[in-house]
């Protein structure tokens, strides 16, 4: 039984100690999965790190109690704490790519860990390692144990990480975002495995995640954190089904449902308004629109990349990222593109924006043919008409430029506004339109939060007066409440300016809310295409059905009307 | 401004680092002294009429036989040591700075372009860099020097010595800049802001210099300081070997070479004072470079 009482963690800085978490109470019984949920900066990972004694320097536990069984974790010496880690508490990290040593076989890593913690010979350790791999569902374990980590797929690798955590028969496992880097199908398998280990071995899990769907699927109890404090705690059914704290309620309302479409998302404590006034910018945009919206047609599009060279003399086999894709985006509609990692959805965006050349196929923007990257000159009109909002707002804005310079760039580049003062004026108006204060114009990107940065990225795209907007996972790096804000903003802009949008995402619930039509991509091929409602209500392809059934959802009665 | 300085991480680290403060004070004093050498030094060592052989080999003031007119003594020609050193440091710093600037422009330009275009252009530039690395700096300098001697008319050679020396040093230093700029550019090329700029149809030169360059300045600044020290040392080495500046307009290296003749004759100051001065200059610049590296690399903190 892990008991956390009044835990406080502080980080000394040059301006005095910063309190990362305080007054955190939590009790995890054997066999219980305790979900710890919160948005970024809530301090949930800090709780896990404090329990296992791996706080990043110079952080320290400033107060409270941490007890595991009858052991006081705070009273342990360095040496004892080190032995306890792994022996009684283990940890599973987010990224299975980096938590295994790529130069050691799985067997070496497992045997090493087992022998480090118990005095057994190689034979016994090896047998235990094979048994463990079998237990966590790796087939043909006695042969596969000789493999290196890269020879396993992402989900299998995360299973190996779990096996490694199990080596020493721990009482508590802290799982920090264990499924965030995984696709939905693999995620659900890993969650099932965690559930089974809790039930059969009686391990207490602390499951740290930002995904409420994951919590709803496996956790017995849940603690909601915000700004380093516990907001609400209790049985999952209780907390998620009938939340008492306003923050929990707001958080639940911001989660997009999978089984129906809602018009707008509820926003807990808006960071910035929806689409704001910015009338001049609005007029300017409408004036550029002049006439009907622009659609996009793609016919038999294929993309190949150079493959890995296997021989010095043979040309490497090309790797085909997209196979003969054909689809049409109706003018003024939102087309959703869904797929797991490696499905080619980002490649599609790169071809359309002219960063990657297609191997064959045709593209038409409106009635004009759209040449591939190599034939598309820098001055081609589509460079202006197609704009893109990228996934990561932390890298899509140049951190050394002021917001004003970033926003004025498209106006200057496309010769839309000649005079520098007028460009600045329009940029300020556009900031207003996307819901940011006007004084943002002289700041640098790092002075804004992720959601605000994404608004700036949207403003930059709009200032090119585009007719076609590509959004590549625009919200996957954002918290759920910020995601709701950005999606509302995109909906508003689309409705007001008749933009045509290609919305790329791995998140089915978001597509259902945003897209009019959708295509499902898998390994570079279209599995299913159709209107969003039709695909969700009656999916035809087996793959789509599988994706839909595996996406973690909250039971309907827990959902709060938006 | 004051609010900015209060928040500045670099300044905060600087105040807490005694080595950096001492190095900065030494470097600033030397650079200041060199820059205002004509105002500060008692005599002009390049003006033959301003010194006399009768004043030759006077020891520094604190030694027996010292003369209040020559605080650090004189050399065998009767030149005041302080004046020679200040004027010499001036030449050394001018050559070092100029060589560093040329190497930066050349190296950063080529490195950025190599990282941006990749492929064959990258391979071409980097092979040239490899060849350059295989040649010791002194060999490059000798080569340039030889070419200049052969090509330029004899009466111009004296005037162009400084230029020849600067180019020779710059050529042996640009590789550092090119390699660092190329590696940093590769990292930036995958960032979405660069993709966005390319996608919008911006000119390559604008993407490179307006978008990428400001984001890779940190490591380049560090190399600039470290290479400034190398350039000064390289100049001193070349002058010491006699292929640098002539004895009538001595740089620090030339002064050390002149001093070498008096190493065992009891007139220690002629060798040791310019040498210590050079060591102080180079070490302080290097410490500042190390400090800058720590500021720009949070992982080393």
From TrEMBL, chain A:
The keyword Kinase does not apply. It is a peripheral membrane protein. GO terms for molecular function: ATP binding; ATP hydrolysis activity. InterPro entries: AAA+_ATPase, ABC_transp_ATP-bind, ABC_transporter-like_ATP-bd, ABC_transporter-like_CS, Oligopep_ABC_C, P-loop_NTPase. Belongs to the ABC transporter superfamily. Pfam families: ABC_tran, oligo_HPY. The keyword Nucleotide-binding applies. One of its GO terms (biological process) is peptide transport. GO terms for cellular component: plasma membrane. It comes from the Bacteria. SUPFAM superfamilies: P-loop containing nucleoside triphosphate hydrolases (SSF52540). It comes from Harenicola maris. NCBIfam families: PRK10419.1 (NF007739), PRK11308.1 (NF008453). Residues 2-252, 296-548 form the ABC transporter domain. The lineage of its organism: Bacteria, Pseudomonadati, Pseudomonadota, Alphaproteobacteria, Rhodobacterales. Keywords: ATP-binding, Nucleotide-binding, Transport. This is ABC transporter ATP-binding protein. Its main location: membrane.
UniProtKB/TrEMBL annotation, chain B:
GO terms for cellular component: plasma membrane. It is a multi-pass membrane protein. It is found in: Cell membrane. This is ABC transporter permease. Signal peptide: none annotated. Keywords: Cell membrane, Membrane, Transmembrane, Transmembrane helix, Transport. The chain crosses the membrane at residues 20-40, 91-117, 129-148, 160-178, 209-234, 269-292. Its main location: membrane. PANTHER family: ABC TRANSPORTER PERMEASE PROTEIN (PTHR43386:SF26), OLIGOPEPTIDE TRANSPORT SYSTEM PERMEASE PROTEIN APPC (PTHR43386). One of its GO terms (biological process) is transmembrane transport. Gene3D superfamilies: MetI-like. Belongs to the binding-protein-dependent transport system permease family. Residues 89-289 form the ABC transmembrane type-1 domain.
């Amino acid at each position: 039984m892990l008991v956390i009482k009044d835990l406080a963690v502080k980080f000394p800085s040059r301006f005095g100690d910063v309190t990362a978490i305080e007054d955190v109470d939590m009790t995890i019984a054997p066999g219980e999965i305790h979900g710890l949920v919160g948005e970024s900066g809530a301090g949930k990972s800090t709780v896990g790190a404090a329990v296992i004694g791996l706080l990043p320097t110079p952080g320290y536990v400033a107060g409270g109690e941490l007890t595991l069984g009858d052991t006081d974790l705070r009273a342990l010496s360095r040496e004892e704490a080190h032995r306890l880690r792994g022996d009684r508490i283990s940890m599973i990290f987010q990224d299975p790519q980096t938590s295994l040593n790529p130069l050691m076989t799985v067997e070496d890593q497992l045997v090493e860990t087992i022998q480090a913690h118990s005095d057994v010979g190689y034979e016994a350790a090896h047998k235990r390692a094979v048994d463990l791999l079998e237990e966590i569902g790796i087939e043909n374990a006695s042969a596969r144990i000789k493999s290196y980590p890269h020879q396993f797929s992402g989900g299998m690798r995360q299973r190996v990480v779990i096996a490694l955590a199990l080596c020493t028969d721990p009482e508590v496992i802290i799982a920090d975002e264990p499924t965030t880097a995984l696709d939905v199908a693999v995620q659900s398998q890993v969650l099932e495995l965690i559930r089974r280990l809790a039930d059969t071995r009686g391990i207490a899990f602390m499951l740290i995640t930002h995904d409420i769907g994951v919590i709803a699927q496996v956790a017995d109890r849940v603690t909601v954190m915000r700004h380093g404090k516990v907001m609400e705690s209790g049985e999952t059914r209780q907390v998620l089904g009938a939340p008492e704290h306003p923050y929990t309620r707001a958080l639940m309302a911001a989660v997009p449902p999978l089984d129906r479409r809602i018009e707008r998302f509820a926003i807990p404590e808006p960071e910035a308004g929806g689409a704001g006034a910015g009338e001049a910018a609005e007029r300017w945009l409408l004036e550029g629109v002049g006439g009907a919206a622009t659609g996009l047609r793609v016919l038999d599009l294929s993309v190949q990349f150079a493959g890995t060279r296997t021989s010095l003399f043979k040309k490497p086999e090309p790797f085909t990222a997209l196979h003969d894709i054909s689809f049409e985006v109706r003018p003024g509609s939102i087309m959703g593109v869904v797929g797991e990692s490696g499905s080619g959805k980002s490649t599609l965006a790169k071809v359309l924006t002219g960063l990657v050349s297609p191997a064959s196929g045709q593209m038409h923007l409106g009635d004009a043919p759209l040449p591939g990257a190599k034939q598309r000159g820098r001055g081609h009109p589509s460079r202006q008409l197609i704009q893109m909002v990228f996934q990561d707002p932390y890298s899509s804005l140049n951190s050394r430029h002021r917001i004003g310079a970033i926003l004025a760039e498209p106006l200057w580049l496309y010769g839309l506004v000649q005079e520098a003062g007028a460009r600045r004026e329009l940029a300020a108006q556009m900031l207003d339109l996307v819901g940011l204060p006007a004084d943002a114009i002289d700041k640098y990107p790092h002075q804004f939060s992720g959601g605000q940065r994404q608004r700036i990225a949207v403003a930059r795209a709009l200032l090119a007066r585009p007719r076609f907007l590509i959004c590549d996972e625009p919200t996957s790096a954002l918290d759920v409440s910020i995601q709701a804000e950005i999606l509302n903003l995109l909906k508003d802009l689309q409705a007001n300016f008749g933009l045509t949008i290609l919305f790329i995402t791995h998140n089915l619930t978001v597509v259902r809310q945003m897209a009019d039509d959708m295509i499902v991509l898998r390994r570079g091929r279209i599995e299913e295409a159709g209107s969003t409602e039709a695909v969700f209500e009656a999916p035809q392809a087996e793959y789509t059905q599988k994706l839909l059934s595996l996406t973690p959802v909250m039971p309907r009665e827990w959902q709060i009307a938006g | 401004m004051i609010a900015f300085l209060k928040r500045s991480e670099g300044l905060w680290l600087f105040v807490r680092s005694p080595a950096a403060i001492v190095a900065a004070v030494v470097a600033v004093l030397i650079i200041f002294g060199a820059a205002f050498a004509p105002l500060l030094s008692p005599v002009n060592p390049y003006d033959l009429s301003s010194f006399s052989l009768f004043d030759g080999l006077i020891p520094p003031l604190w030694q027996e036989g010292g003369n209040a007119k020559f605080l650090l003594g004189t050399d065998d020609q009767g030149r005041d040591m302080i004046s020679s050193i200040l004027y010499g440091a001036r030449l050394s710093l001018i050559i070092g700075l100029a060589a560093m600037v040329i190497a930066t422009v050349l190296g950063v330009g080529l490195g950025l372009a190599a990282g941006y275009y990749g492929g064959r252009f990258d391979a071409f530039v980097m092979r040239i860099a490899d060849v350059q690395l295989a040649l010791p700096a002194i060999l490059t300098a000798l080569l340039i020097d030889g070419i200049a001697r052969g090509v330029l008319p004899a009466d111009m050679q004296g005037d162009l010595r400084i230029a020849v020396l600067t180019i020779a040093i710059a050529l042996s230093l640009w590789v550092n800049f090119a390699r660092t700029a190329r590696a940093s550019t590769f990292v930036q090329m995958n960032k979405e802001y660069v993709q966005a700029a390319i996608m919008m149809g911006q000119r390559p030169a604008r993407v490179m210099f307006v978008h990428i360059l400001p984001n890779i300045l940190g490591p380049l600044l560090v190399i600039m300081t470290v290479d400034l020290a190398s350039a000064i040392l390289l100049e001193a080495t070349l002058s010491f070997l006699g292929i640098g500046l002539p004895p009538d307009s001595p740089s620090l290296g030339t002064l050390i070479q002149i001093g070498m003749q008096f190493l065992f004759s009891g007139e220690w100051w002629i060798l040791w004072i310019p040498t210590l001065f050079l060591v102080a200059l180079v070490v302080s610049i290097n410490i500042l470079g190390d400090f800058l590296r720590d500021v720009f690399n949070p992982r080393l903190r």
